[in-house]
Amino acid sequence: MSSPRWGHSSIAGGFRTVALSFAFQRPLDTWARWSTVVPTRSYVRVDDHGFEAVYGPWRVASVWSNVVGVQRTGPYRGWKVAGPARLSWGDRGITMAATTVGGACLRFREPVRGIDPLGVIRHPAATLGVDDVDAFVRMVEDRIEASAWDGSQKPPDHREGGLVPAVGAIWRWNRRCVAHDQRAVEEVEFPTLDRAEDVDDQPVEVGSGPAFHRRYRTVVRDGVLGAEDAMAAIQADPNVLADLDLAPFTKVRGTSGEMRVGDRYVIEVWGPWKGAVEVVDVSPCSLRLATLEGHMESGVIEMRTAADASDGEHAHVAFTIESWARSHDRFLDVMYDKLGIAKALQSEMWSIACDRFVQLLQGEQVGPLDVSTERAG
Fold first, then answer.
1. Residue 46: CB partners within 8 Å, gap ≥ 6?
2. Does residue 27 have a cis bond before it (omega within 30 degrees)?
3. pLDDT, tens digit, for every residue of 26-56?
4. Which domains does the chain have, with CATH numbers?
5. In whole angstroms, what is the distance from residue 142 CA to residue 135 CA?
6. What percent of the chain has pLDDT over 90?
7. Contact predicate 87/53, CB 8 Å
8. Long-range contacts of 340-344 (CB under 8 A, 24+ apart)
9. What is the pTM of this model?
10. Helix, strand, coil: what percent of the chain each, to 5?
């Protein structure tokens, strides 16, 4: 798997958040999936404040002032790391790893929660089987050295969408005023992706049910940003387009404040709609995302900005979200195409993104949101 990119660039005078992947070694990755550990949703996020490690349903987090040491450990025997997160009955340490190569063991001043959802068992140490162990150890050592103990500090925690906002989104979409063009077509032509297929890719070929081509488009007049500046803001943080209670973006590979090919995000919608995507193309006025294992769809999502026609002194900027996809499996096909629940949730999520784009530019929306849907099959 690709190693993470490390960076120490400044954002508002602080350290950028760096997200990196766990290493998943065959056949241990299969055992991990059987234990509900989806590799594309498992990650470690590091900033100047602390770290957060998410390994399927298990999570460990701490501020750096609570970390008293770190060292490389391993190699491990396969049976000791295969499957779910592991609890050591000797010292109550937790191990989150799907590789025999090795990991980084962090020791804590005050034990942290992790193995059980109620936090009854506390861990004095955590072993993380990350991709680049040596780089991670060096980063942790730097953070420990720079930190000072403060028992009142809270560990990092990523945002997740909730059930109530998801239900509300479905309700609002069915009452939203949009210009929606729906039509049946013989075939949906999918974009060609110029990339090497990875083990956790989820291309359209593995999808189920009919193919959909969907487009959401809004035009903003007299905004404070042009097309390139607006896209730069989106690439720096896609959450400028998100309702953080419904579908926040969590970066799980790469460095915050930028977007590069190979970076990964999890769109944290509640329930089975949560999905991972990888950046497969970036330009000054566009970005393209491919779905990864565990996403509700198999396909491609593209966002782009463009200078639109103007009327006299009024400059226009158009924003378009376009997707080509099929449902990932039969269950999601029923929820999306047959019952329309997932389609309504997705439609409102991307409609909100268009609303947020208007707010980002601080301009005036020209006409209603334009939505088109082509269904083939």
1. 17, 18, 19, 20, 136, 139, 140, 143
2. yes
3. 899 899 999 989 899 999 999 988 999 999 9
4. 10-146 (no CATH), 163-376 (3.30.530.20)
5. 11
6. 63
7. no
8. 341/170, 342/273, 342/296, 344/169, 344/170, 344/173, 344/174
9. 0.87
10. 25, 40, 35
